[in-house]
Design brief:
alpha+beta; about 110 residues; hypothetical protein PF0899 fold
């Protein structure tokens, strides 16, 4: 379960940002997760609740998850398309010369503090 490691990294980053900005409480974090990132939101939220309960700064902090759609680029016809719908084969020209340009990442979008 790599979600626990991701949560530890995110919480550490959020705590550092909160300290830099003299925040006394983190109320909410909006996290963007790629559609094909292999991060399971349900597990992430469970780990989040547990980790935040161990921190006075983060206790009760809400985690909101937004999905970043997976998009693939075709090198042959230079079109982009939805990765989940079509996979590695370009639906426009049938080429296999494609690569993922978005949808495998996870990043902090917003932090709401007091």
């Amino acid at each position: 379960m790599h979600e626990l490691g991701i949560v530890f990294h995110i919480v550490k980053s959020v705590e550092e940002i909160a300290a830099e900005n003299q925040a006394s409480k983190v109320n909410k974090v909006v996290l963007q997760i790629g559609e094909v990132s292999t991060v399971i939101p349900y597990y992430l939220k469970d780990c989040w609740k547990w980790k935040c309960s161990k921190s006075e700064l983060m206790a009760g902090c809400e985690l909101e998850i937004e999905t970043i759609p997976a998009v693939t680029f075709c090198e042959d016809c230079e079109e982009t398309y939805g990765t989940v719908e079509h996979g590695k084969i370009c639906p426009y020209c049938g080429s296999e010369h494609t690569y993922l340009i978005q949808g495998n990442e996870h990043e902090i979008k917003e932090i709401e503090v007091t």
